[in-house]
Specification:
The chain has about 625 residues and is an alpha/beta fold. The strands form five sheets. A six-stranded antiparallel sheet has the order 19-24-23-22-21-20. The longest helix is centred in the middle third of the chain and has 18 residues. It is globular and about 70 Å long. The N and C termini lie far apart (about 60 Å). The relative contact order is 0.09.
Length: about 625
Amino acid sequence: MSEKPCGAYFFAFFENFFVPILTSGGLAAVSSSAFAALYSAFGKYDVVHIHAEGPAFFAWLPKMFGKKVVVTVHGIDWQREKWQSGLGSKFIHQGEKNAAKYADEVIVSIATLLSQHHKVTAVDIIPEKVELINKKKSPIQDEYIEKYLAEKELDLTATLDAKEAYSDADFVVIAAPTNYDIWPVLLPVPTVSFATRYLHTSAGVMVTASHNPSKYNGYKVYGADGCQITTEAAAEILAEIEKLDIFADVKTSDFEAGVANGSIRYIPDEVYTAFVEQVKSQSVLFGEEVNKNVAIVYSPLNGTGLKPVTRTLKEMGYTNITVVKEQEQPDGNFPTCPYPNPEIKEAMALGMEYAKKCNADLLLATDPDCDRVGIAVKNKAGKYELLTGNQTGMLLLDYICSQRVKHGKMPADPVMVKTIVTMDMGEQIATHYGLRTINVLTGFKFIGEQIGKLEKQGKADSYVFGFEESYGYLTGSYVRDKDGVDGAYMICEMFSYYATKGISLLDKLDELYKTYGYCLNTLHSYEFDGSAGFAKMQSIMQAFRGDIKEFGGKKVVKLLDYAPGLDGLPKSDVLKFLLEDNCSIVVRPSGTEPKLKTYISVSAENKEAAEKVEAEIRKSAEEFLK
């Protein structure tokens, strides 16, 4: 054993941990903090253990410092079906293959939370460096690794975890000529967009796994306008990052010293209060009295929504709130719902149980970084029914517009913004109230971009509402991203408004269907693995660009091809077929998975008729996937 302490350094040091920060300059340096964190950590250990999926390719970095490198690799999420079918590992992420070239030892394991016994065959990495771990029923990954390292007589007491990395890693770049403002507590995504604008900083950064499982992570970058950077800006920043020498150009400094000299400043509570006040100002009651004593069950899904959501609701009179205890506090392990996405019914299951026990009127759940909201309400049979993002978005749009019209508060040239995959019925509702609809590419950053354009024209007040089918909503221009705090509050107000009149949200939804025709939106995903799958998807997209006359008996009225850029939007490999009778189908490859997705929107007289039309359109589209 070495005299120096040995230990494990987990590369994914931000895993399960939300760190919102703001910067005023030096963004490229911030983006390189991962490298600098590794750089600063290696001096502590003789053995560096990297446990991650994609990031494992950084194994070469500690190796350059003469350290022994142990890498754990395992299949990524979209390989799970293959693992579970017992086919074994015929795929190792390219980054992990590269890691094996530099590692002294490689542990190959399968993803956690699997229920079968698997024999793993690693065929794509260096055999002499591999120790196979055939894992039985649902072992805990980290416990397995600790047991392995303990057997190798490695001391784990020096392990650097996420919370230690908050100061040790995230701010290793503060020696750059930059000032940083950081929230002193964990807060949602929209607060970073808000504070970037409020404090007039150059940029904002939110480190977040969003609504994904605990092993994932990422970060969002905001420009000075508080809007997520779009494609062009991202390319420019990446180009600056790639210019850096990660050994010579990344400067480090002590966190506490930064606080002492004022280069790091904690954001004062007045900014948080200003954010809450802006959310509260979104009310469209305009003095009307409603019954706010509705029974609400709320779940933050172990994320950041608890304080801002409950504070906003209580300050606006909604005090009958029961919080799901098991999901109340931030916990990036997500112990009760491995996929903490309110779009998924399993994530809402515990909240539904609470709602039944409490006889709640309304169930709310926000995703971990609190920019998405899912809801459930009682139907006539007394059972709780989940609403989709499209349904909730249409209800909010109609409620906000009807209230503004009734009280004479509709702005000149009112605008609604939605993504092209969001239900087309939203545009019909907007047109009914005299709103102009702007359709944008998938991603709320493009909605934020449109708000920014309106602001530059002196028309920020023209923005009335924006939403996307993936449970994101925004009623004002005070932030430039979807806001789960705003969404939760406005849903409660809308619910109370209709409940006071004896109308349920499901009743109101039926009324919209009677006015505009029943509307059904569905999403279908088709997996195409590997390079052959990628080529197949390219071929399929090309086939869809052929002269297609109809889908399922519905004539193609118009084809919108976003590949060359359309309506001022960035180039994107997306096709939208406008069909007769207010139907449509969108086809696009996923940007994050080896999948091709179709979004089908159908208008019909009733649910049964819509489902029949949808099935025919889907069947017709699937002919191109063979």
